[in-house]
Structure formats: structure tokens, C-alpha cells
Write a structure and sequence with these properties.
mainly alpha, three-stranded antiparallel beta sheet, 144 residues, globular, single chain, Arc Repressor Mutant, subunit A
Length: 144
């Protein structure tokens, strides 16, 4: 590989291409558990957080789901994992630089959601209160 090829910027993805890896990445980073884990780790940055502390600070997440989420974040280079050689082993997590850059974006999305949640709830209530028109009924020409 030439140094020019090594230094070239990575090609951007195309979200509308079904084969684009951007879709898979958005699936992974767009979950509530990812958002929560990144937030907890960002609050501790540049420090580390133990697995049990993450579990405690993320109400509703199961041990398995947290493990799957963290494994994905580590694989994607967003989180670093350190195992302390003790009995039982202590497992610590921290955001990488890439993970910290994701926190900025996720924080903006969380802020937007908190600011607009009442408005979205009202829209849901209006929609639920309406009778389904023919286009909304299953099996119709335009309904799903």
C-alpha cells in the first residue's frame, strides 16, 4: 500500500444503498442502550467505569444486553476495555477519542428528544384517537 493510499480519506457511505455498511453502523449506535452507555462513560471520561457500575447506572438493561452493547462498542473502536487481573477479574471500560466524538452527536439527539417529547406524545395521542382511514387499514391498496 502506498503512503498516499494510506493517507487518503475514507470513502463516505451511502445510507440509501442497501449494501452500505453505514446502515449497520447506524443500527448499532442508534439504540437506547448505546446512547446510555456512551453517556455514562462520557461522564467518567477520561476515567473508566466498571461493568457493575454501568449496569447499576442504566436502569432496565439486562446483564446480557449490556455485555452485547459493550462488545459491539469495543469492536467498533468506540470503547476501550481493560481487564484487571484479580479474583474475580475487574472489567473496566472507557470511551476512546472516537467514542467521545460520538457522545457529542448523541447528546444533541438526547437534548432534542427531551425538548420535543411532549410534542411527540401529543402527536401520538392525536393519531391514536383518530379512526384509521381506508389507506391505514391492512390489506388496502395503500395500507401495509
Amino acid at each position: 500500500m502506498t503512503s498516499q493510499a494510506k493517507d487518503a480519506p475514507a470513502a463516505r457511505g451511502d445510507l440509501f444503498d442497501p449494501a452500505c455498511p453505514t446502515r449497520r453502523l447506524l443500527d448499532r449506535i442508534g439504540t437506547k442502550w448505546t446512547s446510555m452507555a456512551v453517556k455514562v462513560l462520557a461522564e467518567a471520561a477520561p476515567g473508566e467505569v466498571r461493568f457493575a457500575e454501568l449496569l447499576r447506572r442504566m436502569p432496565g438493561v439486562s446483564q446480557k444486553m449490556l455485555s452485547v452493547t459493550l462488545r459491539s462498542l469495543v469492536r467498533d473502536g468506540l470503547v476501550a476495555r481493560r481487564v484487571e487481573p484479580s479474583v474475580p477479574p475487574g472489567v473496566h471500560y472507557r470511551l476512546t477519542g472516537l467514542g467521545l466524538s460520538l457522545e457529542t452527536v448523541l447528546a444533541a439527539v438526547r437534548d432534542w428528544a427531551e425538548e420535543h417529547m411532549a410534542e411527540v406524545d401529543r402527536a401520538n395521542e392525536r393519531h391514536t384517537g383518530q379512526e384509521a382511514g381506508p389507506e391505514d387499514r391492512p390489506g388496502s391498496a395503500t395500507g401495509v
